[in-house]
Fold this sequence. Notes:
The chain has helices at 45-53, 75-78, 99-107, 121-132, 151-164, 181-197, 209-214, 233-237, 241-252, 259-263; strands at residues 2-11, 19-29, 34-39, 60-65, 68-69, 82-85, 169-173, 202-205, 218-223, 226-232. With 264 residues, it is an alpha/beta fold.
Amino acid sequence: MLKLENLQKTFNAGTVNAKHALCGIDLVLNPGDFVTVIGGNGAGKSTMLNAIAGVWPIDEGEIEIDGVSVKRMSEHQRAKYIGRVFQDPMTGTAATMEIQENLAIAYRRGKPRTLRWGISAKEREYYREQLKILDLGLEDRMTAKVGLLSGGQRQALTLLMAAMAKPKLLLLDEHTAALDPKTAAKVLEISDRIIAENNLTALMVTHNMKDAIAHGNRLIMMNAGRIVFDVSGEEKKNLTVETLIAKFSEVSGQEFANDRALLN
Length: 264
């Protein structure tokens, strides 16, 4: 479903501030894979997601989604293949619009537009059923402005919207980092359910090692723009934070120094 070949990206190339953010990334995700991505600051995690989404062009390499090369596509052209949830809960929804209006935008994404006005009763019922998945009571508040929701509620809504059009690839970029632990756990539970029920292929960047181990069927660790560890199946299930840190030291030849990740 996703194929990255020799992904290279350097910022400020040719200057004293040159930063090699991606140094030959090779990665293949099969349909239904839920891959968590862990690594220290500057490891290249978000850079890789932004490269896939088309936020900026890559210097070298190839990006394919479901067999289609998207390397030369703009960010908005790739949007029909990709759903994305960002770290900031305020991103991804329109605060001044109603919950049902936000869902309508997501649901109609990539579909032909008509001159019909408003939301039909059939659509409204579908949105109500989708909101019940979140188990947050939002199905009874569909006319409420999104700006009135809490950060956790908005992030859960954004997640639902990102998955509604059944994207080829779902990108979760530290989507629980700005939430309190209890709310973050709830959003992760919803993430698991939505990905499983829709059989989505997903990449989730996180600083939380416990979350990286507990969620998904595969884990990759990045360091200095490279994938240094890739584990799945029973081996992943048996991982602990301690063994993950030890493995990082083994494959990279250095200590894992990231206070944020260790504190989490």
